[in-house]
Here is the input.
Amino acid sequence: MTRCLNDKKLFLISEGEGDSQQRSHLKSCRSCGARHERLAVDLELLSKTLSTAVPSLYPAPLRMPMFYRSLPIAVALFLGIALVWGESRLLSPISPSSTELIFNRDLTQFLDQVSDALFSNATGKDSEVISSDPDVASVQAALGQDCSNECRELFASLDKSVPAK
Amino acid sequence: MPEPEPASFEGLYKAHRPRVQRLCRLLLKDSFEAEEVGQEVFLKVFRQFQNDSRPDDWSAWISRVTVNACHDRRKSAWWKWWRSSSGELQLAEYPSAARGPEQEAIGREEQRRIWHSFRVLSPRQQEVFVLRYMEGWSTEQVAEALAISNGSVKNHLFRAVHSMRKALGDRS
Here is the structure.
């Protein structure tokens, strides 16, 4: 007596394989015969179902996987934009911002005023002192006690040179 | 003996289009994809039709081209990446026109299980199953079309049938 056939052997017999011993067992064994018949019925059912009714199939809407799948694209897009922006920043000439411009303008004005104050007082003083009496007096008053002897003499000479009003 | 093939491309298209569409929809995951690949197949048919060396058996030739086109589509890296995590497939309505008394008897739940078990088979198992049991090819013809050995075809077939029957469960 031979042992019952396993599923693979039964399947291969249905595909036209199997030796004579297996075939004779299949004929004599009621259990194997029933399984073999069942296999034939199942095969017919499977092929008929798949061939006659093809349902519309579509991927189930899954939000999270779609989000995760879109992440690499988003990251690549972001990196691309950052790269283009960085490159444009490097290639473009350095232009100061508006606050820097305002600061520079104020600084320039301040320095101009300081230099005017310093040099106009030093150079224009003589001519103005000579030309106008109140100015000489104001300079004298401003220097006051700190004025050295030479300065006093200079003022004295100036007083003499300016005619009395 | 095979039926005489239509003499014009239009005749070929009309005769084989439903079968090509069905094959594509079996082997690919959505109907849009199937439509696209079906058009590619008929483009190849058109080119072959213009050639002097036309195949003797258009039906077999078209089946082989269709299965290979679906195989190529599934192998493409972009398609693989996009579809790999698309998750479960939902079955839309079954075409009511195709439902005969037998289909009614099978039952919707059983159909769903059969379809799902078919979908989870490996691509090669699907191809072998379709060509052997739905196109009615011999295992030798399947082996030749897919460029694999006859033993390999039988192994793929057995695994496919085994897992699909397992999904069907005990129906006694």
In short: The first strand of chain B starts at residue 89 and ends at 91. DSSP finds nine helices and one strand in chain B. Chain B touches chain A through 43 residues (CB under 8 Å). Strands of chain B lie at 89-91.
